[in-house]
Every structure is written in structure tokens, then in C-alpha cells.
Amino acid sequence: MSSEDVECSSKTKRLHFLLIPFMEQGHMIPMVDLARLLVAHDALVTFATTPVNLNRIRPIIDQATASSLPIRFVELRFPVVDVGLPEGCESLDLLPSLDLILHFLNVLSLLRDPLEAYLRIPDKAGWPKPACLISDNTHYWTVDVARSLNIPRLIFHGPSCFFLLCELLINRHRAELEVAVAAASDGFTMLQGLPHPIRVSKHEVMMLSSSDPDISKYMGTIRVAEESADGVLVNSFMELEPWYFERYREEKSKPVWLVGPLSLYKEELDVKVARGRASSVDNKILFQWLDRQEVGSVVLVSFGSFVHNTMAQLIELGHGLETLGRPFIWVVKEVVDKKVPGADEWITEFEKRVEGRGMIIRGWAPQAVILEHVAVGGFVTHCGWNSILEALATGVVMATWPYLYDQFLNERLVVDVLKSGVAVGIEPTYYFDVENRNEAEVKVRREEVERVVENLMGGGEAGEERRQRARELGKQARTAMEEGGSSWKGLQDVINYVSKRQRKYQEANISFE
């Protein structure tokens, strides 16, 4: 038998996973991490998305190719122009208007035809057909694809079990919660059924159970598709939220596996720096600057890939950081995407004033790697779940500055449950009102920025307790991802589940024949 025959036989015996991520950086990045983890567990992976999204993770694709990793990156045509979306808008964060979000979500099913066309192509390399389909829960249309292949379909959830359980309870008790928040003088009420006192606002109730018929219809479609899934993967770890995991698993009545933090996947530094997309900064200069700072002295300020500050808020935030007197890294994407007129000119002048003490990154930053550096002691974050996990995994305390969707509930987890962060004090805003803001709007004044960050980085005895708690969570996160850890076992359980399902299917077919 030739070496090629041996290799082909080896591939035939390995499980093949088909991954379909949601098209937005915060969803794409952990799914890429999941793909590489599955390969590390001796699986084959097909990663299917659109041309624009593949181009954004080009460094990862090139590295996988150079390392001969058994990951196929498959390009699916997404006819955005044909359905009234602007050319190139193949990711949620690329949409020019929030008014297009629901339309974008509703046309995701257009990916089905190109995916099925690809799956019908005979495989010349000897890969077996997919044994399992893992998709983001927004891809409701994958139900039919999995059925046509006779394989299990697993849902990949980006948020925590805490958020997923809160979402479930809010949807279940929507009517009484709407009455309670309307009657409350401060617009908040307690969410019953949780071990910790968690308050929800009108924002959370409206966001997760909208009265808009079109949004409600879409959410209903998502829930029906999710109920038919064979299991759920969550980017979290047991030690972080054991009670919420158990309650969520009970509610779902199907397998739920914790497989994170996926950002801790072990890899070469140059690959990790390019995680998600190419960095907008010279990484050599960045890390030389960090190496010159004292341990735990630097504040990282970053608000993810989707939300934007107004020009007025950028100015207030900048002045607060300038007055604070501590070293900082500030990621300002508003400069490169041109959605905030005047930002580039102001930031250029600001950069001169803080030269040496502050570093400005215009665009995409290697956030996970920055947080790992010993010089970084605090993180001002929009509370996206990926960012929270990256901070928790590195033992860094957070100042929480949420904007929309799950971020306000994520803040409650960090501040009230995990006690590893301080709240900036942002008032909730309804999701689709973000775009209709006044460009002169300021949610946090410079004095508040200075006060909150100083409290985060100092804070006396309470601050030290937060830092100690964050360091302990960081240790637990790393242990969870190591061989034999809770998340390592979680992913192995996923593989075992799929393998068992495949054997049963093969035995049934043999018996039938």
C-alpha cells in the first residue's frame, strides 16, 4: 500500500465536521478557534463562509495551509446585491445602517444552495462525508442541510450560559416582566429563578422579546430551529458558571457542552496576533512599548468591532485617559471606518499630546495577545462575550461599558456574580435606537472615565480582591482548556457523541441491507 493510500485510509476513518459560522467578527473568531481545536483532537474540518469573511481571516488560512492542517476553507457565494444589500456587505459589522440588520438575518438562507452544491462535488482527496454539522444558531436553514445528510446538527452559542438562561427566563415571563418594569420607578425589576439577585431593565425585556412582528417572527424561527438541534456547544467553562450551566442544560433537555475559552487555544504567537484579521499596528513596536511598562500598569480600552462612539464621546474618553496619568492602549476603529466624521484629525492631535504614555491603535488590534501581556492590568470593554472571556482567561479586571444586546447582562455577570469588574454606569439603550443617537451625545463624562479607571486600577482593598478573583478565574480558565480539563473533556465528549451517532447510523444501514 502506498503512502497516499495510507493517508487516504487514515482520513476516511476520521470524523469530519462541517462548521458554518455567523458572519460577524465576534462570531467568526471563536468558530475559527473551534475548527483548530477539533483538528487538534484528530478531526477533519470544513469551514464554510463567504468570500469577504474568508479574506478577513486570510492570515489564519495561510497558516493552516502552511502547516498542512486538515481544515478546508470553503467559499460560499452570498448574493448581497441581488437582495438589496450593498456590495461587499457580507458581515453584520459591514452594514452601513442598523435598519438592514433584520433583512441581513432573513437572507442568510441564501447560503444553503451554494453549500449543498459544494457538498455534491465528489471528494478527490478521500475525505468522508461530514459526520456532524455545527452552525451558529442564526443559521436556522442548516436544519434541512443536516437532515439531507442524515447527520447530527449542533448549535454553537457565542454567549455564556448565564445569558442564555436569562434570555430563556425573560422570554418565558415576558408579560409579567413588562408590567413590572413599567411600574418600577427606575425601570428595573428582579429576574426570578436565579441564584444571584439579577436586575433587568425595559431594555433587556424589549430586546429579547420584541413587540415588532418582524423581529418576533425571526426570533421564533430561530427558537424552533434551535429546539430541533441535537446538542449545544457554549464558549464558556464549567468553573466560571457551574450553576448556570446546570440550569441551562436542564432547561434544554439535550446535551450541552462547555468548550471554552476558545481564545486560549495554544498556537504560535504570530498566528495568535493575526487571530480574526490582520493587525492594524506594527506588532513589534506594540510589544516593545508594552515591555517598557511596569507590570499591571497599562489600561486597554477597546469596544469591539461593531459599536461606535460619537465624536463627542471620543473626546470625553480621550480627555479622561489623558488626565488619568496612567499608561494606556486605546483601540479607535472610528478612525478607519469613517463612520465618525472628524475622528481622524482629533485622534492625530491627541496622539501627539500623550506620546510615550499612550498608544493609539487605528482599527483592528490583537486584543487577546495584548491582554496576555504582564503589563496590562485593566480593560475598559463593551462587554462582548469574546472580550470578557479573553480578559477572564488572562486574569485581567474589567471596567464594563456595555452598548447593546447581551452586553448589559454580561455586565451583571462580571460585576455582580463574578465580582471581577466595576461598572461604568451606562444607561441601557434599545438596540435599534443606537443609530438614531445625537452625535453630540455623551454617556460618560471625562471625570467619570478618570474615576472609574482609577478605581479599576487601584480601588484599595476592594480593588485587590477583584484582581485576586480575576487571577483565580484566569488559572481556572487555563486549566479547563488543558488536556484533561473540563473544557478539553467537553470537546472530547462532543467528538465521542458524534462518533457514537455515526456508528449507530452505519450499523442500522448494515442491518437494513
Task: Explain briefly what this protein structure is.
This protein is an alpha/beta fold. It has 22 helices and 15 strands.
Describe this structure in words.
This protein is an alpha/beta fold. The protein folds into two domains: 3-157 and 483-512, Rossmann fold (3-Layer(aba) Sandwich); 280-480, Glycogen Phosphorylase B (Rossmann fold), CATH 3.40.50. Helices cover 48% and strands 13% of the residues. It has 22 helices and 15 strands. Strands 3-2-1-4-5-8-9 form a seven-stranded parallel sheet, sandwiched between helices. Strand 11, helix 16 (343-353) and strand 12 form a beta-alpha-beta unit. Helix 8 crosses helix 12 (242-252) and helix 15 packs across helix 20 (446-457). The chain starts with a helix and ends with a helix. InterPro entries: UDP_glucos_trans. Belongs to the UDP-glycosyltransferase family. Keywords: Transferase. It holds the Pfam family UDPGT. It comes from Dendrobium nobile (Orchid).
The geometry reads as: globular
Number of helices, counting only DSSP H or I runs of 4 residues or more: 22
User: How would you name the oligomeric state of the polypeptide chains in this document?
Assistant: single chain
As a whole number of angstroms, the C-alpha radius of gyration is 23 Å
CATH superfamily of the largest domain: Glycogen Phosphorylase B
Pick out its properties.
513 residues; 13% strand; 48% helix; six-stranded parallel β-sheet; 2 domains; seven-stranded parallel β-sheet; alpha/beta
Outline the secondary-structure elements.
Elements: H1 3-13, E1 16-20, H2 25-40, E2 44-49, H3 51-56, H4 58-66, E3 71-75, H5 101-106, H6 112-119, E4 132-136, H7 142-149, E5 153-157, H8 161-172, H9 174-183, E6 188-190, E7 199-201, H10 202-208, H11 213-227, E8 231-234, H12 242-252, E9 256-258, H13 269-273, H14 283-291, E10 298-302, H15 311-324, E11 328-331, H16 343-353, E12 358-361, H17 367-372, E13 376-381, H18 385-393, E14 397-400, H19 407-417, E15 421-423, H20 446-457, H21 460-481, H22 486-512
Helix pairs in contact: 8-12, 15-16, 15-20
Pfam family, one: UDPGT
Protein name: Glycosyltransferase
Family: Belongs to the UDP-glycosyltransferase family.
